Amino acid sequence: MSTVHSSPYINNNESVSRMMLAVLYALIPGTLVYVHFFGFGVLINIFIAVVTAIICEAAILKIRQRPIKPYLYDGTAVLTAVLLALALPTLTPWWLAALGTAFAIIIAKHLYGGMGYNPFNPAMVGYAMLLIAFPKEMTAWIPAETHGMNFYDTLNFSLFEALPADKTYDALTMATPLDSLKTQLSLGYTIDEIHSSNPSLFGNIAGYGWEWINIMFLIGGLVLIFIKVISWHIPVAMLGSLAFMAMIFSFSDAGSYSPVSFHLFGGAAMLGAFFIATDPVTAAASNKGRLIYGAGIGILIYIIRTWGGYPDGVAFAVLLMNMAVPMIDYYYKAPVFGASSNN
Amino acid sequence: MSDTNYKQIINNGLWVNNAAFVQLLGLCPLLAVSNTVINGLGLGLATTLTLVASNVMVSLIRHWVRPEIRIPVFVLIIASTVTIIELSMNAWFHELYNILGIFIPLIVTNCAIIARAEAFASKNSVSSSLIDGLFMGLGFTAVLVTLGAMRELIGFGTLFQQAHLMFGEAARDFSFTLFENYRGYLLAILPPGAFIGLGFLIAIKNIIDKKHQARDKVVSAETVEVTG
Predict the structure, then answer these.
(1) B188: nearest CA in chain A?
(2) Is B157 buried (19+), middle (13-18) or exposed (0-12) by CB count in 10 A?
(3) Which residues fall within 8 angstroms of residue B160, CB to CB, at 6 or more apart?
(4) Residue A264 and residue A259: Cα distance in Å, rounded?
(5) Cβ of A63 under 8 Å from any chain B Cβ?
(6) Digit-coded pLDDT (tens) for B11-51
């Protein structure tokens, strides 16, 4: 195993699992609101992803001849699965969550050396893989609240891809607010026209349903900062740079650039800022480094959302900045335990 | 040269010093056109032909070319060989030629070819250079075909699609579909699939080598370090 690595290797499993548990608890409010707006598909996806993650983690640990119990109980695999499942559209066939999680655990995590050694955020690797391989399934969302799919209908679709007789997949699914905005902007409409043409999609600030999910993830994230499970540097730098970019452009041309609130409370901004970018293994290690890392993610999200090919850019932004982490850590070294440091 | 030496050359080309697996040469065409078996086979055979021809010619002139100018001479030989092969493929396998496109002329930049000219053909007899070129090429082709099969199977759920491009109309039915209603796995066909696939193949080779090593406890793998 390599002895030099940029991110800190976490060897105290007990503290890791307590941390993971706190993060999972903090996800609950956002997840419940998510279920309220987008149906039980969220929970089904989480269940499938978690089961897949546990099976893959145990199997790989066995093949690698590592102790299974301590690594499985540290909760990192479960957290990866939950984060990936929260990023998926809610009406999806079961194999989508299973395949993405298996890819995340086996390839993105264990092939790089397992817990503490993976340079890329496993959940985002799984998500990016699914987005590239299954663009149709990964961009079709059901409308918030008006989808009319109960638990049985959703489960039936997940397992057999069968829909109730009065519904078709194409009629039921639609683009997300970010996606729809991008399409309409390219047709020459202004931001105001787009928002007022479809209030049931765009809601009050950043998409009906989406804004509440983001607010709940924000609250969960603030609790994590308050109880010192995560530090404030990455979320503040990321949301700050995203807001700064949005402010400059919307100030200069409000007709074709969305306002700050739309970027902060739309898509996966809050989930990304507090729960995904803060992954201790793949983020920069020092506080100064974290500020740069977070700011880079925020700027990249804005660039991808505004000029890129995909409607949201959290996953790609996080992965791109993961790549920059060794360089950031080289210039802003993590404080060595026991040594005095100005970081 | 004795028979055992030929055996070593063959073993070197196919496995121990495989151009794609061990030397990691010619990755650009390897990764770009290995999305189906037939594409891989087409490019692999074209590369093999180039390797054989350039190795033989370089070996033939090895006593007359001064070392100071050997590299430009090798480049000229390889470039003419590739041009001949490109024109022949354009004439006889036109559709395959269109699919492989820029990667046929790009064989000229495949480092494996100049590496063999420099490291082997310029120092060895014509016959052993021929064998070396042939088996280095076949080793490269084997990787291209294996990777192509892997990516085609996972990506499209088929094998040998468009076989008629190489083997004529009679081969149109060679193609078979493994799974009906397969959704396709786009990632395997896109460039990331090539990188991941090659990574897995190299890992499998390392596992096999490790097992062999453990069995005979004899390590005699001479490796030539060439990058490019």
Answers:
(1) A133
(2) middle
(3) B37, B38, B174, B175, B176
(4) 9
(5) no
(6) 888 888 888 888 788 787 788 888 888 888 888 988 999 99
**Cα Rg, chain A, nearest whole Å:** 20
pLDDT at A148 over 50: yes
Q: How many CB pairs under 8 A join A and B?
A: 13
CB B38 within 8 A of CB B168: no
Chain A residues with CB under 8 Å of B186 CB are: 132-135
**Residue A132 touches chain B, beta carbons under 8 Å:** yes
The domain segmentation of chain B, as residue ranges, is: 3-227
A28 close contact with B: CB closer than 8 A: no
What does pTM read for this prediction? 0.84
Q: Does A133 touch chain B (CB under 8 A)?
A: yes
Task: Give A256: exposed, middle or buried? Use CB within 10 Å, 0-12, 13-18, 19+.
Answer: middle
Q: Which residues pair with B159 in a beta bridge?
A: B176
Q: What CA–CA distance (Å, rounded) separates A124 from A282? A: 11
What does the alpha-carbon distance between residue B78 and residue B49 come to, in Å, rounded to a whole number? Answer: 11
Taking CB atoms and an 8 Å limit, are B190 and A134 in contact across chains?
A: no
B185–chain A nearest CA distance, Å? 6
Q: Which two tokens stand for residue B74?
A: 């090798």
* The dihedral sign for the CA sequence A162, A164, A169, A175: negative
Q: Where do the domains of chain A lie?
A: 15-174
Chain B contact for A129, CB < 8 A? Answer: yes
Residue B221 CB neighbours (<10 A)? 13
Give yes or no for a contact between B42 and B167, defined as CB atoms under 8 angstroms apart.
no
> Tokens for A23?
């993060």
**ipTM (interface pTM):** 0.77
